[in-house]
Amino acid sequence: MTDRADPAAPEEPAAPGAPAEEALTVASAVAGTSTTEAVAAANPLRDPRDKRLPRVAGPCVMVLFGVTGDLAKRKLLPAIYDLGNRGLLPPGFSLVGFARRDWKDQDFAQLTYEAVKAHARTPFREEVWKQLREGIHFVPGEFSDDGAFDALAMALAEIDETRGTGGNYAFYLSVPPKFFPVVVEQLKRTGLSDAPEGSWRRVVIEKPFGHDLKSAHELNEITTSAFPESSIFRIDHYLGKETVQNIMALRFANNLYEPIWNRSFVDHVQITMAEDIGIGGRAGYYDGIGAARDVIQNHLLQLLALVAMEDPTSFEAASLRREKEKVLKAVRLPANLALNTARGQYAAGWQGGEKVVGYLQEEGISPDSTTETYAAIKLEIANRRWAGVPFYLRTGKRLGRRVTEVAVVFQRAPHLPFSADDTEILGQNALVIRVQPDEGITVRFGSKVPGTAMEVRDVSMDFAYGESFLESSPEAYERLLLDVMIGDPPLFPHQREVELSWKILDPIEEFWATQGQPEPYESGSWGPTSADAMMARDGRVWRRL
Ligand code: NAP
Question: Is 67 a pocket residue for ligand 1 (Cβ < 6 Å)?
Fold first, then answer.
């Protein structure tokens, strides 16, 4: 046992500024009276007509495989605490950690405590932590160890007895992808994947869902041999982001944009996810995978689907997925992949005032690796709405800054009744959905410059989440973990979407595999020159971000 302080009794005082009532108990939330929701209700920008109660999870256990990993510490454990703090967890909620270390419950509680302190979005409240702490358990073991999974089954049965969790278990596989099949097989062998009458069992799989169409299919075969499709939750955390869900609100809750959301008005669409960091300590995962498989196959193609799909008949999973599938099926690759795709690999450079090494010099990367850290592709959508409108997708590491956005760029006005001099610097209208950071929407349009001439130039109209709603958006993982516990699937991609996305990407990967080394680009720049050339051939430029 360690000599660390028991996190059940942290010595630090409660966060300054905590509300006087303090008792933000998990149980109180069930009645819809959590302090956080009360604070939200007091928000002057909240519509007083909104009387809906928050969605709250029913009794259950969350079993986290891979609790000592990066994702668990930075995102999952803090998100669970945040849900508790918002009063959205049920009384008796239990959290079971599984990893190789020879740990006791207390060690896992300590890890959780530290992760919460370091990364939780909401303020630390001792009362909430105490409630969560009571339900924390740890089961040590290797994924290949039958005995460890038998012990897990026993531990879960005991938790059901003592905490009233009713045999409802969510198994979250936050583990290296090669272990997905191993863990699923173990859950099947122990019978943990079979829900007794009146209870549920769900499995949560993190991306990547395979590394190509074939492996995605194989992974699905194994997973569906243990769990029914309705119990499989594939996490693409982008779908949990408020700004991504807002694409649907923007398009389908308004009448303003939909009439012009088509080939008659849209010139092209740019979807960008730029990171300013390198691969960090994730060489083992990233090398051989690369930017396109890591980001385009999932996040960017999901964004494309939401931007381009027809309106679903409802927000039910089946309707939403059907529309996304239809549009992914209609995606076409350009005939000439050499001219309409680009890939690069970051070289040394400067980032945030610091000198950084190139990809090939990163620890754990082979000096002749051909893995791309930047990828750009041009796609078209063969349907009535989008025929002839290019969708440009790009992603990369060690770029100028961290930003994810969707830019819908409109055609120029057919006629400008002004002198050419007065409109010389006028660009194209654009609607930009800023997914992160600075979440919001910007509309760019032409406006008269004050003065005596009829000079027109671009200005912006801005909607910023923080200003309009006065509260920080929940983290994507808060929303998605809650949806898993509630059993609400619309924000999780179906296997058919996963396979359609691999069908788009596989031919590009096969082509790139014949092309040798990707083009180097300087760290801190905006990517390889071939990506700019690709746009220039179409008479367009990437947006400057
Ligand atoms: P990670 O840091 O490598 O953590 C892996 C976890 O699995 C550790 O807890 C490790 O426990 C455990 N583990 C490994 N081999 C094991 C074995 N044989 N038996 C028992 N436990 C074992 O991985 P991660 O970055 O957290 O990623 C987890 C998953 O999320 C991956 O599928 C990844 O692709 C996906 N993902 C991650 C991120 C991210 O930001 N990190 C983002 C999106 C998706 P030990 O302590 O015993 O080593």
Answer: yes
Q: What is the pLDDT of residues 118-132, one digit of tens each?
A: 999 999 999 999 999
Q: Tell me the β-bridge partners of 137.
A: 96
Check: CB of residue 137 under 8 Å from CB of residue 94. Answer: yes
Q: Check residue 361 and give its pLDDT.
A: 95
Residues of the chain scoring pLDDT < 50: 1-36, 39
Give every CB contact of residue 60 below 8 A, 6+ residues apart in sequence: 90, 93, 94, 165, 166, 168, 169, 170, 200, 485
Cis check for the bond before 312: say yes or no (omega within 30 of 0): no
Q: Verify whether ligand 1 is closer than 6 Å to residue 143 (CB atom).
A: yes
DSSP E strand boundaries for 301-364: 331-332, 341-351, 354-356
Nearest atom in ligand 1 to 182's CA: 18
Query: In whole angstroms, what is the distance from residue 100 CA to residue 140 CA?
Result: 5
Residue 281 is which amino acid? G
HSE-CB for 180 with a 13 A CA cutoff: 22
Residue closest via CA to ligand 1's atom 43 equals 207
CA of 438 to the centre of ligand 1 (A): 29
- Tracing tokens 């779908």 back to the chain, one arrives at 239
Active site residues: 299
Of 26, 524, 538, nearest in space to 278 by CA: 524
- Token representation of residue 41: 């209700």
Alpha helix segments (H runs only) across 25-74: 26-30, 35-41, 70-71
**Ligand 1 atom index nearest CA of 235:** 44
Reduced to 3 states (helix: H, G, I; strand: E, B; else coil), residue 521 is: strand
For the packed helices 126-134 and 105-119, what is the interaxial angle rounded to 10 degrees?
A: 150
The whole-angstrom separation of Cα 490 and Cα 487 is 10
